[in-house]
Design a protein that fits this description.
Helices cover 24% and strands 20% of the residues. The chain is of the alpha/beta class.
C-alpha cells in the first residue's frame, strides 16, 4: 500500500503476513504491533527518544554473555517476567516466580542432607520439605535444582572467587517426596546496576534491592515444571522486590532451633554447635493436562 498513515500502519503491517503464517504467531505479532504503535502515538515518540531506545537495546546486547543476561534482567525489573509467571501459574500448585538472570545449567547432583554452606560464614539454614501433587501425595523422582547467592550477595557467575557451582545443586526426591539440605542463610542483594537496567532504575528513582531467597526449579515426569523462589517473612525488602517476585504462598518463617536438636541424616549431623534455622517448604506440582 502506498498510502500508509499513522492510523492505518498497524493493519498494513499485518496485511503483509503470508497466508501460511502460524495462527499463534499472527495473534502475538498483531497484539505486539498494536500496542507498540499505540505507545508511539500516545507519547508522541520523538526521533531522539526512539534513537535512545535503540541504543539502550544495543547496549543490553553488548553487555550480555553466557553468564550475564541483561535482557532477562530488563524483563524482570519491568515486571514482565513476573506477569508471565502469574498468567501461567495454576492455583492448585505452588506459585511460580522469576527465574532471574543468574541460573547456571548443569549443576551437580547432591544427595539428601547435602551441605552447600561449606566453609562460608553465616547462619546455618536447614531447608526441607516434600514435593507433592495438589492432593498432598508425595512425588518420587522429582528433581529440585537449587541455587542462591553467597553471603556476599553474589551468585557464583558474578564472583570470580566462587567455584562455578558454588551454592548450586540438584537433588532428587525418594519415595516419600522429601528433600533436605543445609546452606547459609540467604541475604538481600542488589541486581546489577552497571548496565542499561541500572540506568533505568537510577533514572526512575528505584532501588535495586531484592529480598533474600532460595531459587528452585522442580521437575517430575507427568507434571508441569515449577520455577519458583522462597522468601523469609522478616526480610526488609519483602514488600518492594525490585523484580516483583514475591507471592504470598512463597513467604515462610525461619524457625531457630537449638544445636542439640539437629536431625540425623545430614552432612552436618553431629557437627552443629550453634543455633540453626529451619525452613519447612513443601512444593506442589500440578499434573500436565
Amino acid at each position: 500500500m502506498r498510502t500508509v498513515t499513522s492510523e492505518n500502519i498497524t493493519s498494513v503491517f499485518m496485511s503483509y503476513f503470508g497466508p501460511d503464517t502460524d495462527p499463534r504467531l499472527r495473534e502475538v505479532m498483531l497484539a505486539l504491533a498494536t500496542h507498540l504503535h499505540d505507545f508511539a502515538r500516545e507519547v508522541k515518540l520523538t526521533h531522539a527518544e526512539w534513537q535512545k531506545g535503540i541504543e539502550f537495546l544495543e547496549w543490553a546486547g553488548r553487555i550480555s554473555d553466557e553468564e550475564r543476561h541483561e535482557f532477562v534482567l530488563l524483563s524482570d525489573v519491568l515486571g514482565l517476567s513476573s506477569l508471565v509467571d502469574m498468567v501461567n501459574s495454576v492455583p492448585e500448585g505452588t506459585s511460580s516466580s522469576v527465574l532471574g538472570p543468574f541460573h547456571i545449567s548443569g549443576a551437580p547432583a547432591i544427595p539428601f542432607g547435602f551441605d552447600m554452606k561449606r566453609d562460608y560464614e553465616g547462619e546455618i539454614l536447614l531447608a526441607r520439605g516434600r514435593v507433592t501433587d495438589p492432593q498432598g501425595n508425595p512425588i518420587a523422582g522429582a528433581t529440585i535444582d537449587i541455587w542462591q547467592t553467597a553471603p556476599n550477595g553474589l551468585y557464583s557467575s558474578q564472583d570470580p572467587d566462587q567455584d562455578t557451582y558454588s551454592f548450586h545443586g540438584i537433588q532428587t526426591t525418594g519415595a516419600d517426596g522429601a528433600y533436605g539440605f543445609t546452606t547459609v542463610k540467604p541475604v538481600s542483594y542488589t541486581v546489577p546496576t552497571d548496565g542499561p537496567v541500572g540506568q533505568i532504575l537510577n533514572a526512575t528513582g528505584r532501588h535495586p534491592w531484592r529480598p533474600s531467597h532460595l531459587h528452585y526449579i522442580v521437575k517430575a515426569e507427568g507434571y508441569r515444571p515449577l520455577v519458583t523462589e522462597i522468601f523469609p517473612d522478616d526480610d526488609p525488602y519483602l514488600d518492594e522486590d525490585t523484580v516483583f517476585g514475591v507471592r504470598e504462598d512463597l513467604v515462610m518463617t525461619y524457625v531457630p532451633h537449638a544445636a542439640d536438636t539437629f536431625p540425623d541424616g545430614y552432612m552436618l549431623s553431629g557437627k552443629v554447635n550453634e543455633t540453626y534455622l529451619v525452613a519447612d517448604i513443601d512444593l506442589k506440582l500440578v499434573p500436565l493436562a
